[in-house]
Each structure stands twice: as structure tokens, then as C-alpha cells.
Amino acid sequence: MPRQKRVAAIHDISCFGRCSLTVALPIISAAGIETAVIPTAVLSTHTGGISGYTFRDLTEDIIPIAEHWKSLNLEFDGFYTGFLGSFEQIDIVTEVCEKLRGNKTLLIVDPVMADNGVLYKIFPPNFPEGMRKLCSKANVIIPNITEAVFLLGEDYKEGPYTRDYIENLLRRLSALGPKQVVLTGVYFDSGSLGAASYDAETGEISYSFEKKIDGYFHGTGDVFGSALVAALLKGKPLPFATNTAVEFTVKSIERTKQAGTDIRFGVNFEEGLLELAKALSE
Ligand code: PXL
To answer: Ligand 1 center to residue 196 CA distance, Å?
Structure first.
């Protein structure tokens, strides 16, 4: 039996709405990976299309949690960072990852900050600059196209995209530091949507597309990122991991669309966990 892997997921807890830690914890655990958490903030719900949410910043707790873990000599196979509660947290989370990282620990950064060409309202305009620093330390980054162009200090462009444009983004994102880049929200025509991955070590670029489902579904970036992290920690190659994460996300969206659930409440990934666990255990 291979040794069980251990990941620390560093995101907020949105108590309702299926994103961040309420998604990362069940998905990565379902793959048989021990999942520790550092909550960056506690919100009553996520901030996408829901007003009146509560927000408790947990910045002050992050370093003490890491120091306690350090005193216990805990070792981690991976860190998976997502939504951070403030600009200040970027440096703090970078410090935590450096402090607790061994030379084989994978740092996987989802630079959650923007979508559809717009920076999330709660972040200051210099947030992408801070995120670029954290991404430069990562082994793998998982931006969507908006986050990718903001990391590169460029303007957002509406799709459909060309292969040249996407591959150029992938290579320049990797030049910021991470050896592997997975870009989401990629499409070359209006009928399909998916992700592209790049491995700077081999130069390999791969694509994974599914039929586009109309509508905006909240939390899908975290569902995708968590499945990708699970697959990578299970030792799956990047193109397989990307493909598995795309399929898992699209099936979760399909279930949600069929049920007619309020799209702000996130997607039904729960009923796909068994299938994901099977795909990753083969
Ligand atoms: O899914 C990313 C995310 C995580 N956490 C919070 C959010 C969002 C996206 O809007 O608002 C609190």
C-alpha cells in the first residue's frame, strides 16, 4: 500500500454556498487524501451574487496555526491555496507555505481573485500583483483566463480564443515561476468549454473540452481545483488530472442544471464523489 498523502487546504469557509473549504475538504478527502485546513476567513455565504454576508477575517490566526503545526513536526505532501481574505494574507500564506514546505511538497495555488474580466469587489486593485508573488513560488497554478491576464498585468479579452493566444498565456504564466499551469475557461468556439494544461519540463500542452452548458454556476473553480489537487496528489499525470477535473466539474454542473437549483448555491458535486474516488484509485 502506498503511504497516505496529506494536504493542507488554505481557503476561506463560506458556511453556505458550496465553495472554498466546504468543497476542498470533501473532494480531496474522498480521494483518500488526509486534508488539513487553514481557514482564512469565515463568511456566512460566498460573495458571488449574494448580499448581506457576514465576514470574519482570520488573518491573525494563520501564523499561530502554522507555528503550532511546525512544533508538531507535521509534514505535508501538498498545499492548496485559494480565496484569501485580504491583501495582507498573501504574504502571510506565502510565509506559512515556505515554513512548512519540505523539498517534495507541492504548492498548488489557485489565484482566486477575478472572473469574467473583473476583479472581485472585495479586493484592492494591487491584489493581482500580490498574487503574482505567491504564484511565483508555486509548483502548479490554476487561474481562469481573467486571473491569468491580471497576473500578467494585461487587459482581459473576450473569447473565443485562438490556440496561439492560449499557449502564449500558458508559457508566460509558467515563466512567472510555476512549472505547471492549468488554465480554465478556455474555448475556441461557442459550443465547448474546458481547460488547458502546460508542463514546462516536457513542453507538453494538453486540452480537455466538454460541451458548454449555458449559465454561470458558482463555485465551479473550487470544484475543479479540488479535483485537480486530488488527482495530482494521487500521482496522476497533469493531462489526466486536468481531464478528470473537467469531467467531474461538468457532471456536477449537469446535475445542478437538471435539478434547477439556485445557481448561487453551488453545484451538486457530492453525488459524483464516488465516481471520482474510483477514477483516482485505478
Ligand atoms: O469560489 C471562490 C470564492 C471563494 N470564497 C469566497 C468567494 C468566492 C468567489 O466569489 O466569494 C468567499
So the answer is: 22
